[in-house]
């Protein structure tokens, strides 16, 4: 959430940056500033009333000693009037603060200065030039499953409806192996593992920015007022809510594996086939919490970390910097890592790595104490997929296929216990 003090000092900059997003509710910025002026005015009146009440309280004490009851009654009447006015103003202040907050939570983070509004070749930071294939006419994964009995979408559909899959035998173990492999690498590089709930309350969703922005894409359990998580980032970041760190303790690095649940309302089946897009999918997540001066370094570090995992799987990939309209609600800058499917002849996103600057930490109330000045400041938060399982699984199945089997990458064989699916 943007701070009002920041909006007040940087109005023109914010308006310019939000236009990169094609943000339609740009008027909210000026509405917030006008309401804040009204809030300050009410607060000033309240402060003067409190000052006056303190003076009257002292007078009452002196009059009680001197037994001047006639003056005492006059002051008591003034106190009653003051109390009633104060009560009315406090309610007005509370109402204004609520309206300001409702408007603020509907304003996304401002894009970084390096984020473009439109896509061009400069948005592609890296792209694999040579893409190898082991077979001349590679089959897409929905055809491979007929041959090797990998997964069953019809069985998932029978249980839950479209957009759910059942993984079978060696494919199920391959998926579990990917999860463990990703976690092991994350832990090796000092990410602390968490095993988290898959349900969150409304405040947890608001704190990371999923609510209200993506609320209609989240599964909601009406009776319990709980949401199924859309990503492990949400409960993982909320582990650090309302914390103040010493600067020496930063960065905080954490990882988790969770299933993720997304309704993808209106979109499922229109552009996707097989397990490219599902309502329930597995993902390993990484986050970092840093000081403001070190978040750009942390972002580069996370991109390199995920890049090296993909290189270890020997998959062709490219790295993109997202344009303003494609940014997530809380993100200031995001880099997507995509792997190439030789069978589908297209790039598939397997990781989004974002720097949310102090946007999330303002809602989460995550702060740090500066080593030199002792001042308390908001942390910067970063998150990334390390990695999303279905599309990694898809490209492994399609890119490692031969005419008679699907080979397993060498790094995964100790996890799977087999070197091929036949």
Architecture blueprint of SSEs:
Elements: H1 4-9, H2 11-20, H3 27-66, H4 69-104, E1 124-127, H5 141-148, E2 151-152, H6 153-160, E3 166-167, H7 169-188, E4 192-194, E5 199-200, H8 202-208, E6 220-221, E7 226-228, H9 233-238, E8 244-246, E9 252-261, E10 280-290, H10 295-312, E11 317-321, E12 333-341, E13 346-355, H11 359-364, E14 367-369, E15 376-378, E16 380-388, H12 389-399, E17 406-407, H13 413-416, E18 420-421
Helix pairs in contact: 3-4
Report on this model:
- There is one protein chain.
- The protein has 422 residues and is an alpha+beta fold.
- The chain folds into two domains: 4-104, Helix Hairpins, CATH 1.10.287; 121-421, Bira Bifunctional Protein, Domain 2 (BirA Bifunctional Protein, domain 2), CATH 3.30.930.10.
- Helices cover 43% and strands 20% of the residues.
- The chain is built from 13 helices and 18 strands.
- It has helices at residues 4-9, 11-20, 27-66, 69-104, 141-148, 153-160, 169-188, 202-208, 233-238, 295-312, 359-364, 389-399, 413-416; strands spanning 124-127, 151-152, 166-167, 192-194, 199-200, 220-221, 226-228, 244-246, 252-261, 280-290, 317-321, 333-341, 346-355, 367-369, 376-378, 380-388, 406-407, 420-421.
- The strands form five sheets. Strands 1-11-12-13-16-10-9-4 form an eight-stranded mixed sheet. Strands 5-7-6 form a three-stranded antiparallel sheet. Strands 8-14-15 form a three-stranded mixed sheet, with no helix packed on it.
- Helix 3 (27-66) runs antiparallel to helix 4.
